[in-house]
């Protein structure tokens, strides 16, 4: 069985189904990687989360059962990243997987750039990531926030007109939950929305 380890917008069920059919996902942690906000290139118009190899760190995410026929679509969605196979010893499964003999792939960034005024963090993208995390638990969402680096002051509040193309079906309850978590983790104070 093949799985994708998703650690950003792929955590969210509605978002990942824009690319491939994947209702089920299993909470997991990937060891030996760190998650950062990053522009997806020097000329990118927004930032997203990326992972890079880094000792003594881990990131939470989900293991998504995956049909290899969809690799072309997923590679297109994740362009700018490199698809790599990860060792099973690097995974800590937080849910019980239905199979034991698996191959796991993820997408890593060849490098990362600090978010800037012309490549900001989009609130709509963050809302998608946190909505996926909240499906598992509030603690899981808090872990996502605290294990992500490169939080900067370049955020865009695009909730009224989302710029992230897969930001759909939000409600005010989600916004309140996200803002509460940002406040509890002291990240709300670093946010300079424009």
UniProtKB/TrEMBL annotation:
The keyword Transferase applies. Residues 4-114 form the Gamma-glutamylcyclotransferase AIG2-like domain. Pfam families: GGACT. InterPro entries: AIG2-like_dom, GGCT-like, GGCT-like_sf. It comes from the Bacteria. GO terms for molecular function: transferase activity. The keyword Ion transport does not apply. Keywords: Transferase. This is Gamma-glutamylcyclotransferase. It comes from Alginatibacterium sediminis. The lineage of its organism: Bacteria, Pseudomonadati, Pseudomonadota, Gammaproteobacteria, Alteromonadales.
């Amino acid at each position: 069985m093949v799985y994708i380890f998703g650690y950003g917008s792929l955590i969210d069920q509605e978002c990942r189904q824009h690319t491939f059919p994947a209702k089920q996902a299993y909470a997991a942690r990937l060891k030996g990687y760190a998650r950062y906000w990053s522009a997806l290139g020097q000329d990118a118009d927004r930032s997203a989360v990326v992972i890079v190899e880094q000792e003594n760190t881990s990131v939470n995410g989900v293991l998504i059962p995956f049909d290899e026929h969809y690799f072309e679509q997923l590679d297109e969605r994740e362009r700018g990243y490199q698809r790599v196979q990860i060792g099973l010893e690097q995974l800590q499964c937080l849910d019980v997987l239905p199979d034991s003999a698996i191959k796991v792939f993820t997408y890593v960034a060849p490098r990362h750039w600090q978010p800037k005024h012309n490549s900001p963090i989009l609130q709509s993208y963050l809302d998608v990531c946190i909505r996926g995390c909240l499906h598992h638990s509030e603690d899981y969402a808090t872990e996502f926030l605290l294990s992500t680096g490169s939080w900067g002051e370049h955020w865009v509040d695009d909730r009224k007109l989302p710029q992230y193309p897969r930001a759909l079906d939000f409600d005010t309850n989600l916004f309140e939950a996200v803002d509460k978590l940002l406040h509890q983790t002291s990240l709300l104070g670093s946010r300079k929305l424009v």
